[in-house]
């Protein structure tokens, strides 16, 4: 099974953002040119085993001054130890600033819906009820611009930087591989949203954002609950929260602490991936 970052829609998304897309052993590697220094490359979540000699040959032929790699391996996998040893013995070092999440929470969607809800913490179940009591309503929509507006407001004054990336992502995944959920007040104002990407029966919690009003009304909690139900209806088996705090990288994932506590409240299983590597 491939991670979503090794799919054709994601490759086209990266191309639209200006990256060159190459292949090594039928897996995507993304390259970007920097004047005077050469090319920077990254290979997100490739399956292993992977030929290290072919990677080095690629770096030489493309004048790559830095390569980052995030193996699609869980630490409990037998292949993990072999891959780590192979990479380390061939000049790769562990990347202190991972470019892909190294730890996440995944929720099993093959259970009954009520059992999924009962696996929430009491605080999260209460949050769902409070949002409903406040009249928050969740709709599946194609109104990506309302969601972009929410994210821009949340990340102001630099919110304008996210617009192009979100539009490119939407254009390459919607409608078959993306679902947008927006939360509205009783007065029909959009106050929060979640963008799900779907691949290989996995729903990825890719982007989430909320206005201050939305947070006060517990809209983010209700959104996750609705996202789980929508993902289940779309025949997904796994809901992936796409990253939580990783104690192996305390500085790099420091900003993850707040939303890690939020995500942990929905139950699920902690999944630890291989470290990212660089050379």
Q: Which short descriptors sum up this protein?
A:
alpha+beta; 2 domains; 6-stranded mixed sheet; 27% strand; globular
What is the SS-derived class?
alpha+beta
First-residue to last-residue Cα separation: 26 Å
Q: What percentage of the residues does DSSP assign to strands (E)?
A: 25-35%
Q: What is the domain tally?
A: 2
- The best one-word shape is globular
| Individual helix count | 10
Percent of residues in helices: 25-40%
Largest sheet: 7 strands, mixed
- Strand order, largest beta sheet: 7-8-9-10-11-6-12
- N-to-C series of helices and strands: HEEEHEHEEHHEHHEEEHHEHEE
Return the average pLDDT rounded to an integer. Answer: 97
Number of strands: 13
Low-confidence stretches: none
Radius of gyration: 20 Å
Task: Give a structural overview.
Helices cover about 35% and strands about 25% of the residues. The chain is an alpha+beta fold and about 280 residues long. The chain folds into 2 domains: about 5-100; about 120-195 and about 210-235, no CATH class. The model has no long low-confidence stretch (mean pLDDT about 95). It contains 10 helices and 13 strands. The protein is globular, with a radius of gyration of 20 Å. The strands form 2 sheets. It has a 7-stranded mixed sheet with strand order 7-8-9-10-11-6-12. Strands 1-2-3-4-13-5 form a 6-stranded mixed sheet, sandwiched between helices.
Give a brief rundown of this model.
Helix content is 35%, strand content 27%.
Chart the SSEs and their pairings.
Layout: H1 8-16, E1 20-24, E2 27-34, E3 38-44, H2 52-61, E4 64-70, H3 78-89, E5 93-94, E6 103-108, H4 113-118, H5 122-133, E7 137-141, H6 144-154, H7 163-173, E8 178-184, E9 190-199, E10 202-210, H8 212-216, H9 219-233, E11 238-240, H10 257-264, E12 269-272, E13 277-278
Helix pairs in contact: 1-7, 5-9
């Amino acid at each position: 099974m491939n991670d979503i970052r090794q799919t054709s829609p994601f490759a086209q998304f990266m191309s639209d953002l200006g990256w060159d897309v190459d292949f090594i052993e039928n897996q995507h590697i993304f390259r970007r040119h920097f004047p005077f220094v050469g090319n920077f490359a990254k290979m997100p979540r490739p399956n292993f085993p992977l030929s290290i000699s072919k990677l080095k040959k690629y770096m030489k032929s493309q004048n790559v001054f830095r390569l980052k790699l995030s193996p699609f391996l869980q630490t409990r996998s037998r292949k993990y130890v072999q891959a780590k040893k192979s990479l380390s013995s061939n000049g790769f070092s562990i990347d202190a600033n991972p470019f892909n999440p190294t730890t996440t929470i995944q929720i099993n969607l093959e259970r009954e819906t009520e059992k999924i809800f009962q696996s929430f913490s009491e605080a999260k179940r209460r949050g769902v009820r409070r949002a409903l009591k406040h009249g928050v309503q969740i709709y599946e929509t194609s109104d990506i611009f309302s969601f972009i507006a929410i994210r821009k407001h949340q990340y102001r004054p630099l919110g304008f930087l996210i617009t192009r990336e979100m539009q490119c992502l939407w254009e390459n995944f919607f409608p078959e591989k993306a679902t947008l959920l927006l939360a509205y007040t009783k007065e029909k104002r959009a106050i929060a949203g979640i963008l799900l990407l779907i691949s290989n029966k996995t729903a990825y919690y890719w982007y989430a954002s909320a206005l201050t009003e939305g947070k006060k009304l517990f809209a983010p909690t209700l959104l996750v609950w609705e996202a789980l139900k929508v993902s289940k209806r779309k025949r997904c088996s796994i809901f992936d929260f796409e990253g939580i705090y990783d104690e192996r990288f305390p500085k790099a994932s420091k900003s993850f602490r707040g939303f890690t506590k939020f995500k942990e409240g929905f139950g699920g299983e902690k999944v630890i991936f291989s470290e990212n590597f660089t050379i």
